[in-house]
From TrEMBL:
GO terms for molecular function: peptidase inhibitor activity. Residues 15-90 form the Proteinase inhibitor I42 chagasin domain. It comes from Massilia suwonensis. It comes from the Bacteria. Keywords: Protease inhibitor, Thiol protease inhibitor. This is Protease inhibitor I42 family protein.
Amino acid sequence: MIVIDESGCGTSIDLPAGDTLVVRLAGQAATGYVWVVEEAGGLVLSDKRYVSGGDRPGAAGYHEFRFEAGEAGTHVLRFKRGREWEETAAGRCEVVVRVR
């Protein structure tokens, strides 16, 4: 399993076939901003969840996405941060994943 966070945005990584990639992007659910997957290429999204950073209401945490390496090749993961009712993105993250 390979785990990356915001520091992995804008980078390329190698993922062995059959392995899992976990992407953790900081967020604060109480603000209405959420991260969503815009594109996953040949990677398969197997789970997504929000993990709170504390037990106080409104505590910052992170959005976690788990992907399984599907077909071999180069795939682009694209994420967008925003509110459902707004068209403009408040943030973006892109990671190039090479499945070997």
